[in-house]
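User: My collaborator sent over this chain with a note saying "see what the structure looks like." That's all I know about it. Can you take a look?
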Amino acid sequence: VTGWFDTQRSLAVSLVSAGMGMAPMTMAPVAAWLISTHDWRTSMLIISGIAAVLMIPVSLLVSRPPALQGSGPAETPDAPGAPEMTLMEAVRSPQFIILLLTNFFCCATHSGPIFHTVSYAMLCGIPALTAVSIYSLEGLAGLGGRIGFGLLGDRFGAKRTLVVGLLVQAVGALSYSFCRDITAFYIVAVLFGFTYAGVMPLYSVIARENFPLRMMGTIIGGSAMAGSLGMSTGPLLGGWLYDTTGSYSWLYITSFAMGIGAFLIAMTFRPIAKTGAPPMVPATD
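Assistant: Without extra context I'll predict from the sequence alone. Here is the result:
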């Protein structure tokens, strides 16, 4: 997506990723209903079958940006002002490493609460189907978050918006530990879902702003891999903490700590210097 747009890039990426926010709203109730009428294995097979039937044909419609096809007036991979670097220089750069670490801790922050909050709500006495609606509400709020953060990213800059969003996400994760009734869960779900969904598209925008288009697959893929590791770490760590302490409080406290870590790491990001800028000439009398 980033290769198709030179302006309002944050909004473009956010609009495309807004489809991800529809999944919790639609598939969470469907999954709950399937599990209540079938066993979980059959439910997983049904869901995976639906995904395969829909996703594989649609993926065939995806095409490369004009800049990489060598057609159209779009920005070329080596356009003036683009950073001049090899792929190895890019993956060894501090900016790439910071993106990886930030994405890892960001995803580790929100994945634990996403995975365990329904169980925590049920421990608070909330019925199962009502507890699942917390997750669905996060997804609904995430739709607005992706669009809202896209607009903010275009207005104030992707990096600045990401930093603020990471801080709010950390606070949202901690706020779950104070919830005891469904109203409180819903309030936090709106804040948390809006924020964690909103920050995710910004990583691709920051990557596009700092690295050549020709290596976007590697840069964004590496960042996504780090995020996937974070997504697997959060639930695993949260489950271990619950089994060890008998409480979900430490899950949310740990998520808050990792969220603050992501916030602090993101603050250290410095844009890669562009080439082709006119040299600074000292003034003379």
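A starting point for your reply to your collaborator: The chain has a mean pLDDT of 84.
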